[in-house]
Automatic annotation (TrEMBL):
Metabolic or biological pathway: Cofactor biosynthesis; L-ascorbate biosynthesis
Name of the protein in its database record: L-gulonolactone oxidase
InterPro entries listed in its UniProt record: ALO_C, FAD-bd_PCMH, FAD-bd_PCMH-like_sf, FAD-bd_PCMH_sub2, FAD-linked_Oxidoreductases_BP, GULLO2-like_C, GULO_Plant, Oxid_FAD_bind_N
Parts forming coiled coils: none
Record GO terms (molecular function): L-gulonolactone oxidase activity
């Protein structure tokens, strides 16, 4: 008991410091591409240091074009030699294996140095940028001309090309919605071509060309986007207030709240039965205020603190200490609330709501990204070079017409197992953002709420998580009972099982894919799997596969029977199959298959 109390004190203190420390100097994320020779014999990973299946992706070579002409040359050379290609971004934030070329002999094309603003037209309110530009650069460059991208993700380390590849978004049901790609009015994409065309060609796609709807969310399988033109708006101010409420009426309010406030979102803590409502709207530009967002979870943090947090969490998992998770989850959410979730009224201090400021200062953050190297004394909280946070992300959108039922199903699980979702609170609960139906062939199919769930991942792929079954059931309820659409840039394998059948224009997308890249040089086994091509399946049938979301368990060996975790039906959704801990004092039938 003394040991448990010590662990709780350690994690409480560390959470406090992770929230209040914001270093000026920090080790920014390293290049996800590493080569043993100069730009040859390379490996690539994501910013978290691990793909869902923990595999290592290799490539024979990487190129770093600095102009569109150099990009064309790279694609032409690869096409001429029939070499597989994949596009890589400067920080590689996609969790699935979208950046992995096939085999060991492929080519990586990094957009790291394609990061310039090419044109800003104030009168037409358009901006043309290269695809490797980060969201932060775009926001800042637009603001210099008193313009704004109206909606965007909350992390500014994403690139324009990366956001379009995965359909990244903010939160809104207003205007064209919160997805960045729906504000693209023109793009240039370099694709393979015939020998007569020089093995590569630039295609310019504009509004009115149906092929733009394929390229707006492309998964990187059409070619390399070189330039993007966005439709912007005059820079404006917003007023933000966070309000915490009981979740008893949350199902009904989740349907209507997004129509009431332009930038509405939620942070839900199911185990606490609480929801934080974001009341966020535009206000007149002469409204007083110079607010700033610097979200604590995106700040640089001392590596020693990150290590202490991870050790404490691993100890709670080892000891099945649900009470410890609940205590520390409550402490985390309390500190975030005290810190106004990273908002300040003047860039320094928080003095009270509402926080009013210009849109470019409130729409995204990520100060750990833009820092000097300090030998990893400090780092982004997920930096794999140090002992840091290591997690799964299950992220999906559910139609507004079904959101209430889904929320009620999650609440039923909490009623049955009250402490089961305390671990989510240590990762700031479930972030919920509004999205709208898109014309993009692989974009959102209808107005929906996006649920972003972050939770503990073991360093040992064969080690079950505490309350593993509850999160697995939530995942399966969403994907299979309610037909949720997974976020293309997040999630475990099971979320993509049969996913292409959920898109009404999938055939149109595949037609454009075959036109642009008939040899499939920008495709891989992973993209073939999620696109349902060549008989490929996204799930993996092997021992322990369900523990990491590589499969849905159908037999006990998919779980960890040696640790008393067996494949059983879920508690609420009768069709779900989850790895659950069986009380060895109770009778059960080993080896049951469903």
């Amino acid at each position: 008991m003394k040991h448990l109390k010590y662990q709780k004190n350690v994690i409480a203190k560390c959470i406090f410091f992770i929230m209040i420390i914001c270093m000026v100097n920090c080790s920014p994320p390293e290049d996800p591409i590493k080569c043993t020779l100069k730009n040859s014999n390379c490996t690539i990973t994501n910013t978290y240091g691990a793909f869902p299946d923990r595999s290592i992706c290799r490539a024979a070579k990487v190129v770093y074009p600095t102009t569109e002409e150099e990009l064309i040359l790279a694609v032409a050379n690869a096409t001429m030699s029939n070499t597989k290609m994949k596009v890589a971004t400067r920080t590689s934030h996609s969790i699935p294996k979208l950046v992995c070329p096939e085999g060991d002999n492929g080519l990586l094309i990094s957009t790291k140095y394609l990061n310039r603003t090419l044109d800003v037209n104030v009168s037409s309110m358009t901006m043309t940028v290269e695809s490797g530009m980060t969201l932060r650069q775009l926001i800042n460059d637009a603001a210099k001309s008193n313009l704004a991208l109206p909606y965007a993700p909350y992390w500014w380390g994403l690139t324009i090309g990366g956001m379009m590849g995965t359909g990244a978004h903010g939160s809104s049901l207003w205007g064209l919605g919160s997805q960045v790609h729906d504000y693209v009015i023109q793009l240039r994409i370099v694709t393979p071509a015939t020998a007569e065309e020089g093995y590569a060609k630039v295609r310019t796609l504009e509004i009115g060309n149906p092929e733009l709807d394929a390229a707006k969310v492309s998964l990187g399988v059409l070619g390399v986007i070189s330039q993007v033109t966005l439709k912007l708006q005059p820079l404006f101010k917003r007023s933000v207030t966070y309000v915490t409420r009981n979740d008893s009426n949350f199902g009904d309010e989740a349907i209507t709240f997004g129509r009431q406030h332009e930038y509405a979102d939620f942070t839900w803590y199911p185990s606490q039965k609480q929801v934080v409502y974001r009341i966020d709207d535009r206000v007149a530009t002469n409204t007083s205020g110079n607010g700033l967002l610097d979200f604590p979870g995106f700040r640089s943090t001392a590596s020693l603190i990150l290590s202490s947090l991870r050790i404490a969490e691993e100890t709670e998992e080892t000891l099945s200490d649900a009470d410890g998770k609940c205590t520390n989850g409550n402490f985390t959410t309390s500190i975030l609330k005290t810190m106004a979730y990273g908002l300040t009224n003047n860039g320094i201090f928080f003095t009270g709501y509402p926080v009013v400021g210009y849109h470019n200062r409130l729409q995204a953050s990520g100060t750990c990204l833009d820092s000097l190297e300090d030998l990893t004394i400090t780092a982004c909280p997920w930096d794999p070079r140090v002992k840091s946070l290591f997690f799964h992300q299950t992220t999906f959108s559910i139609s507004l017409s079904q959101v209430k039922s889904f929320i009620e199903d999650v609440q039923k699980l909490v009623t049955l197992v009250p402490k089961s979702l305390c671990g989510l609170d240590m990762y700031n609960g479930i972030l919920m953002r509004y999205v709208t139906a898109s014309t993009a062939y692989l974009g959102k199919q209808e107005d929906a709420l996006d649920f972003d769930i972050t939770y503990y991942r073991s360093k040992n792929p064969m080690s079950p998580r505490l309350y593993e079954d509850i999160l697995e059931e939530i995942e399966q309820i969403a994907m299979f009972k309610y037909g949720a659409l997974p976020h293309w840039g997040k999630n475990r394998n099971v979320a993509f099982d049969g996913v292409i059948n959920k898109y009404k224009n999938a055939t149109k997308f595949l037609k454009v894919k075959n036109k642009y890249d008939p040899q499939g040089l920008f495709s891989s086994s992973w993209t073939d799997q999620i696109l349902g091509l060549n008989g490929e399946v996204v799930t993996v049938d092997k021992e322990g596969c369900a523990l990491e979301g590589l499969c849905i368990c159908s037999q006990d060996s998919h779980c960890a029977p040696e640790k008393n975790y067996f494949c059983r039906p879920g508690k609420v959704y009768e069709k779900s199959r989850v790895c659950t801990k069986v009380d060895t004092n109770k009778e059960f039938t080993a080896g049951v298959s469903f």
